[in-house]
Structures are given as C-alpha cells and as structure tokens.
Amino acid sequence: MSETSKNVRIFATCDIGPALDGLRARGYQLEVHPSPEPPPKQLIIEKVRSGIDGLIIEEGNSLATLLPSVWASLPTPEQFLRQLKRKAGRPAEYWSQAIRVARYTTEEFT
Predict the structure, then answer these.
(1) How far apart are alpha carbons 110 and 107 in whole angstroms?
(2) CATH code, domain with 60
(3) CA atoms 11, 17, 23, 27: torsion sign
(4) C-alpha closest to that of 80 among 102, 50, 100
(5) Is the Cβ–Cβ distance between 89 and 62 less than 8 Å?
(6) Residue 75: which domain range?
(7) N or C: which end of the chain has fewer CB within 10 A?
(8) pTM score, two decimals?
C-alpha cells in the first residue's frame, strides 16, 4: 500500500471493536462518533417553517405527526410542537433526549 493511500479518514458511528486497532496499526486516521443526539427543543422551534413543514415525533412506542396544513390552526412553532407532543401521548411541555423529530413537506392537490 502506498503512503498516499493511507491518508484516508474512516468515519464510524459506533465502536467497531478490534478492527479499530488494526486500522490504526496500519496508519489509518480514524474518527469514531457517538450516535447522533436529537436536536434540542429550541433548535426545532427555530428551524421549523410555519405553514411549510410537517413534523413527526417519535419516542419509544409513541409516534405522531402533524401535517403542514395544521399550521392554520396552530400558527406558532411552540403551539405546533406542543400539540404534536399531546398527539403522541406526551404532556405539552414534556421533552426528553430520547425524542426523535423529523421534518417533511407535502404537496396539496385539488
């Protein structure tokens, strides 16, 4: 193996055990990252686009979504997120690092 081919970065999101030591011994530069953490509630409130985004919230066996059209009755991100948590069976002010949130858009057809 040439010296330039060893100048490779390997990204892993979990510990790959003894393979890490073997790769390091061969001169590879490694980065091991923990599992991604869910975004803090404030970041979701700042990034969600009123009237455009729908949200999906998931924690354990709880799953809920609110379509973008729901913004008509819940105009602020805070109201939207509180209602989504209620729909998922959680208290409106509840937050946990185990919550997963996804954002999506839809197309309306008439």
Answers:
(1) 10
(2) 3.30.1490.150
(3) positive
(4) 50
(5) yes
(6) 41-104
(7) C
(8) 0.64
